[in-house]
Amino acid sequence: MGKITGFLEIPREAPHKEPVAARLRHWHEFEEKPSDEQLRAQGARCMDCGIPFCHKGCPLGNIIPDWNDLVYRNRWREAMARLHSTNNFPEFTGRICPAPCEEACVLNINNDPVTIKTIEKSIVDHAWDAGWVVPQPPERRTGKKVAVVGSGPAGLACAQQLARAGHLVTLYERADRIGGLLRYGIPDFKMEKRHIDRRMEQMGAEGVTFVTNAHVGVNVPVEQLRREFDALVLAGGATKPRDLAVPGRELKGIHFAMEFLPQQNRVVAGDRVAGQLVATGKRVVILGGGDTGSDCLGTSNRQGAVSVHQFELLPEPPKDRPPFTWPNWPMILRTSTSHEEGVVRDWSINTKRFSGDAHGNVRKLHGVRLEWTQDGGRPAMREIPGSEFELECDLVLLALGFLGPEPDTMLAQLGVKLTDRGNVWVDESYQTSVPGVFACGDMRRGQSLVVWAIWEGREAARGVDAYLMGRTFLPASPEL
Amino acid sequence: MSARSPRWLLDPRTERDACGVGFVVNVKGARSHAIVEQGLTVLRNLTHRGACGCDPLTGDGAGILVQIPDEFFRRECRSARLAALPAPGSYGVGMVFLPREVNQRNECERIVEKIIRDEGQELLGWRRVPVDESAPGPLARQTLPEIRQVLVGAGRDAAGPAALERKLYVIRKRVEQLVRSSRMPDSERFYVPSLSATTIVYKGLLLPDQIPAFYHDLADPQFVSALALVHQRFSTNTFPSWDRAHPYRFIAHNGEINTLRGNVNWMHARQAMFASPLFDDVTKLFPIIDPATSDSGQFDNALELLQRTGRSLPHAVMMMIPEAWQNHESMSAAKKAFYEYHACLQEPWDGPASIAFTDGRVIGAVLDRNGLRPSRYVVTKDGFVVMASEVGVLDIAPENVLHKDRLQPGRMFLVDTEQGRIVGDEEIKEAMAARRPYRQWLDQHRVRLEDLPAPTDVPPAFAPDTLRARQQAFGYTIEDLRILMTPMALNGQEAVGSMGTDTPLAVLSDRPQVLFNYFKQLFAQVTNPPIDPIREELVMSLETTIGPEQNLFEETPLHCHQLRLKSPVLTNEQLAQVKALDDGHLRAITLPTLFPAGAGGPGLRQALDALCARASEAVADGYTILVLSDRGVNERNVPIPSLLAAAAVHHHLIREGIRMRAGLVVESGEPREVMHFCLLLGYGAGAVNPYLAYETLRAMETEGVIREVDAEAALANYRKAIDKGVLKTMTKMGISTLQSYRGAQIFEAIGLDSEVVQRYFTWTASRIEGVGLDVLAEEAQRRHDYAYKVSPALDGDLDAGGQYQWRRRGEHHMYNPNTVAKLQHAVRKGDYRIFKEYSAAANDESRRLCTIRGLLKFKPGHPVPLDEVEPAREIVKRFKTGAMSLGSISREAHENLAIAMNRLGGKSNTGEGGEDPVRFTPDPNGDLRRSAIKQVASGRFGVTSYYLVNADELQIKMAQGAKPGEGGQLPGHKVDQYIARIRYSTPGVGLISPPPHHDIYSIEDLAQLIHDLKNANDRARISVKLVAEVGVGTVAAGVSKAKADVVLISGDSGGTGASPLSSIKHAGVPWELGLAETQQILVANDLRGRIRVETDGQLKTGRDVAIAALLGAEEFGFASAALVASGCIMMRVCHLNTCPVGIATQDPRLRAKFEGKPEHVVNLMLFIAEELREIMAALGFRTVDEMVGRVDMLDVRDVSAHWKACGVDLSQILHKPDVPAGVAIRCIQSQDHGLEKALDNRIIALARPALEQRAATAFELPITNRNRTVCTMLSAEVSRRHGADGLPPDTIRIKFTGSAGQSFCAWLAPGVSVELEGDANDYFGKGLSGGRVVIYPPRAATFLPEENIIVGNVSLYGATGGEVFLRGQAGERFCVRNSGVTAVVEGLGDHGCEYMTKGTVVVLGRTGRNFAAGMSGGVAYVLDEDGTFELRCNKGMVGLSPLDERDETTVRKLIERHYELTRSAVAWRVLSGWRETHKRFVKVLPVEYAKVLAKQHLDTEAARLASV
């Protein structure tokens, strides 16, 4: 219900951030905590739509109007419950989700959208602070055992749902810590890792066993899992990075983003990383204009890069939303907090080759500018003659996206069917071609957002539960 | 009836009739043939109140009831050589309709003779009634019966007139029963119009003129009587039926019995307790109510029973139609006691009714409690009384008139020909009231709930530990708490919503639904009016009694030993009091209504059987109050759906014949919203205790969700909201007392199988089959599982619901983020491919079922090339946008739709808010912002002559899909300067549209309004908008006969600016059902060829239109889709004025955000047409006309996999009536409106100089009641030629002499001044648009004008301007919804100045009750000579004060003018004593209006001062 005329009276107010100079000096989150009053006022802007497009815009189906209203009414605890009813980990999504909900917000048609993401984060932070987030162990155990492989957001969500449904869940992670990309892909300044640790604690109390350094198909035999568990869920992510096959790629100083980012996270976590790959004092080029690229950017600046360039193959998107896009996600120029911290961005650039010094270190990027045209409805690129250029650099980070799950180990051993795009094929209940084996998250969907991963984990848990019990009472948030 | 009961959508129980009724009587009882002739003259002069079917020579029936002319029969018997007749009064004559076929006729006669002998009476012989078989119309001739009279001599046990009549009664009942149960194929043709020793009925399927031509007897000079009761019928359809003509044996009825189903059920239930010393065997009379007759016939049956078993006729009538006594401020205590006592015996037969009744000795008439039918009478100096629906039906010299009056609401008028005098209402009723010490009996026996001892055993108010699980087990949703219950608890009324509903029918939903959702409320439209429960509260009552009844034929103190409740919603404490009852007579027992978890359908059936058996035992054990309780729900016990439990026990006890020995109370966790309570009461519960709803509210208060009020107040508010909601729902059907509503089953089931319906919801309409007990059990089990099987770690929340707002895990909506976004992208880009994506999403019911049309598919046709199909540009001319008023939507949005539809050649609709005249001229770029369709709704806002002439179609809105049976309200904050100007109201003051059109209480009234509008603009089509419900087809048939050019069948789901949520969700049925029914009935009656059929209600795609066309629609309306194309994103906040896209708002900040363009709407329409073309090509239709009604091209999809939908059977919808080849299935001709006969043709000719040259013109003409709607065509001419301002005052002056017909001077234009010497009928001055009317009695009259009635009911309805001076009294509802007229009158009936918004009214006499109800503007000055006015004034919205100086001047001037124009003696008297008399005036001024006026005054003062 909100305040009926709230949107007419109250302007949007996004949370304040620590100044760039200050936040570059540390690895912590830098968004200031809004006051309850400010949050309530922002919640009051929600119009409680007959069709809440935000609720569709959110992959998880977060019931946004409900908790906006509850915040407005100062009913934080219920807001937390309503939020948790669709989202196991709102503190993750409240920090790192690009918020398609806000794009879809009805106010976004001709006004500024509700600060949904901030409200989400605040609700769950408030709940943790108040000690309301406690384990919810099931009343009865079913005696069924499920193994979940991969502890990213999909695996975590799936495991938590299954545990609450009464099953005994073991979560396998090949890395030394739980969390997948959340742990080692997302820099701490975007999401501090204590959030994962707290959730692990909760899940442990709910009946989830965590096994790390367990690379299923490598050091943990698939057969063992099939024997010991009643069902198996594959949530290993889409970790195969897209490479750039150009001359000079082999030079030193050209790395995948996922070689670069995890090391810093380890350091922040207190690990000692020998020979850490750092941007300190370097001229950095980031190839790829997406979120991973941004994370590389923020990390490089914090490490003390001399300069950072970020190049994107595609043309520069418009600043304003093109017509006929609302409520869909529009292709517009987005400026992340990392961008605010200093970068040279450029678009329509193709990297032709790299050249290096005598030691085999990269020294230059050789690029060319592109012109994009429409070819029968499909975009086509053409190099602009004479636009070739060179850029001196010491570190090149490839943030060009991911190609899908790694097919060779676990998947091959299980013999699950893959889709044309190389993802794991599942039926409507998230069951793979192998009975009793389920898949979800990026492993099924291909690379995507954390919100989608959590949603997939939850939906797959329903499939598993129904498979084990004949029917499931786990909540669903069906896609339209 | 079973023979007529169909495989298709006609339900014969839905036939409706109404009509004209009248009588002539010699008060002294002197018999003459002249009386018979006068009766026939009255009948002829009521011809226009009846109707003809497809055959213009066949009427709907007419007849006459007279005293038996003894000498006539004596002569006839002699000449026929029959046995000589015994003394007058010791023989009876039976009028008998027999089958024509000889063997069957003989068989019938043998039965009659046998029963006469059986009953010990003497058969004197048969007389063949001489008739002219060529007189009736062709259709009537097809079913012409053989008509004979049987003469019966008094025999055993028949000494004395009453005893003989009783014998004749028994004989008739037994004969009827025997013939009906025989296997005779034509048994339906057998009918006994009358069998009596005093009266005889001549009637048939005839027009009034045909009656004397057909029945030779009536012309015989020896055919004499002292009274003649006549009736002319207007039936909604034309199934030829001779027996349904009136009069019946005792009555002729104009109106309708709304509570019929309940009344019949209760009568049936009571039968078992009947016992009378007057009858050896009461069962011979069974069935008391003849199931084959009409509602009037059944009323007659019941009245006859009461009369024959010992009560006097007036006594019986008072029991059937009691006055509104509960809230009557001035009724005597004895009379109240009489009614209160009799309320324990029998519920009222409720509905609009003017009933004329006679037993041959007394003759009288009574009006329903709300005065919804007209009855005027004249008493002459030479001892006659003429009463009729209209005045002027018999020429009576003015100097012979002693007194002219009208029947008043609830009042009785009686002539006793034996005593030779008129007996007044007071005298009759006080005499009745004094028959027994009713008050004393009540005081001693009737138990009032509030007097019971404080309860000892009250369950805990609130058990938080188990609350959530129980809420889940009963299917509570988040929405139930948040959207439904919280507003009730806070505000004491149901919440309002908007934009209709687009969720699946319960039977098609994937989700478990509560049983309540399988029912839809029925509502009144056309054939009877809904009531306004707020403004007309005085006729409403929620009081009810529960407990055992006694033998209806007796009167003992024990009869009223019942428990009396003020409200049917019991608190926990009250329920505990009821449960503790044990006074030897009232004894309560609690029966659990639970079944074991996991037991499924068989378990549920077993539990129901056991429950019914226990109920029977309990009654046998002497328990008189059965409490059905589902307390005790837990892991093992599932609640039986409360409605199923209540209805099962109710019908079981009826079948067992013991229903009346106990009352039913429901104690359940299930009911929570208004509809739930309505259903429980409607299926027999006397009271309901919603314990879980109470607990839920307490929990919400404890948790702080509800803060504004404490728990007790929240509960009290909630009960108040339910009470109001139940009242509201009753009034939608026009029912005013809960006692009549109880058990009346005013619902239609959608999606229940016939086993469930027949067994538990007996007699409920259910037309598409559906789920059985197995599924109902499964649904209960799923809820139970959710409550008790889900790990508590997961069930923190209730189910999302999603009925009111879209939720991903909630109910499916057709308008959802996908479809809305795709539609908007498609029309804005003009991209048909995106539209196809949209329509694919909207049409796709492969995954989720939603609508009936989703279950249909096209049969393969013989495709034709797409380019041979008529172009989209042609097709869109059939398209219309929905009626959305300026006011509910913004000016920008409103004009956008109009421009778009005008560009296409389609039609937009004004809605009910009037239209700015600047829109009548085109814009410079050629766009036209004028709406082709002008709506005429109950509020009549801005309906002027000029508005009406600027239309291509005039639409009478009888009902609206989102809230059929209800009026509307435009909140003050939406009434800005602009809206107020167009609506003729005051900015900032809210506006009310009454639930009924106050000029349409029945079908013949609708015919009258159609006639009026055709006069107001003969170039416009007249359309009538109805909403689908069972019986809508029958109403549509009536509409066709009433000569509408178009009938619109709206679905239940349509959008709205504001409507109570229970109306949006639970009233009406989908258009597929209503349209199919309409098409079938119109075709079967051969009425389809003269009317076009339109449909709307969530039409979204070309596929929807194709299905609508195949089901029978020629034209198609789109409202929500057009709004979505204009930018609407289904916020559903239209009622809050905060529409963020500038559509449903008047807030200038938001209106500025409107981004819709006419192109968007144009694209939508063209896309839909294009998609339709593709379907047409595939099916092989080149034009839409070819496909109209081609239901044979539709087939049913296979949905056998769906757990609920698999039971649905659509064969009734797909039925195509079997009719001869020539019968049209689409409109092929236009209606004959008969305007060439109108008096206005002459008037226009005479007024030509004025019309053409604006030259002053004056002339005189005589007038009669057959001249209806006089001066309206003239006014249309004035408006067309001279615009809104018309002519200068007095340019055309006309003087009439006589009794003017209905709607005299409707929409009289400025510049026309009319004088009438005589009187006028109902609807005088409706819509008066600036002209002046003066009416005074004939100069030769000797009666006192101020004591006599001069104009009928509902004068000046919706008038916007002009002046009226009336020397005499007006009927009920004078100046209803007046928005500008200045009127002076010398007294008036009830509900004066109701809903008035502007204008000035001076009343120089007494007003009726409920004056100024809903009056939001204007001012009235009432001369209150005896100081009692305040009692009769409804002060809900107005304040009373003495006149100030300015008032004094105003009033005095008006009275002076009144005197000048009418020579009124009252005016003279008042003026001559002005010093004193002016002090006796009371000024009636609406409170809100006064505030606005005061502010305006201050503002202008401030402005003036500032400028100085």
Task: Tell me about this structure.
The complex is a heterodimer of chains A (480) and B (1508). Chain A has 480 residues and is an alpha/beta fold. Helix content of chain A is 34%, strand content 16%. Chain A has helices spanning 6-9, 20-23, 36-44, 53-57, 64-72, 76-84, 90-96, 100-104, 116-130, 153-164, 181-184, 194-206, 222-228, 257-268, 291-303, 337-340, 410-414, 442-445, 450-469; strands at 145-149, 168-172, 208-211, 231-234, 240-241, 254-256, 283-287, 307-311, 344-346, 349-356, 362-375, 378-383, 389-392, 395-398, 402-404, 437-439. In chain A, the strands form four sheets. A five-stranded parallel sheet of chain A has the order 3-2-1-4-16, with helices on both faces. In chain A, helix 10 (153-164) links the parallel strand 1 (145-149) and strand 2 (168-172). In chain A, helix 3 packs across helix 5, helix 7 packs antiparallel against helix 9 (116-130) and helix 14 crosses helix 15. The radius of gyration of chain A is 23 Å and the shape is globular. In chain A, 50% of the residues are buried. Chain B is of the alpha/beta class and 1508 residues long. In chain B, the strands form 13 sheets. Chain B has a ten-stranded mixed sheet. At the A-B interface, helix 4 and helix 6 of A face helix 24 of B.
β-strand percent of chain B reads 15-25%
The tally of beta strands of chain B, per DSSP, is 54
What is the mean predicted local confidence, pLDDT of chain B? Answer: 94
CATH superfamily of the largest domain in chain A: FAD/NAD(P)-binding domain
The description of the largest β-sheet of chain B is:
10 strands, mixed
Low-confidence stretches of chain A: none
**Rg of chain B:** 32 Å
From the 3D structure, determine the CATH topology of the largest domain in chain A. Answer: FAD/NAD(P)-binding domain
Give me the secondary-structure category of chain A: alpha/beta
Q: Proportion of β residues of chain A?
A: 15-25%
Distance between the termini of chain A: 24 Å
CATH class of the largest domain in chain A: Alpha Beta
Average per-residue pLDDT of chain A, rounded, comes to 96
Order of adjacent strands in the largest pleated sheet of chain B = 43-44-45-46-48-50-51-52-54-53
Rounded to the nearest angstrom, the distance between the terminal CA atoms of chain B is 82 Å
Task: Provide the domain count of chain A.
Answer: 3
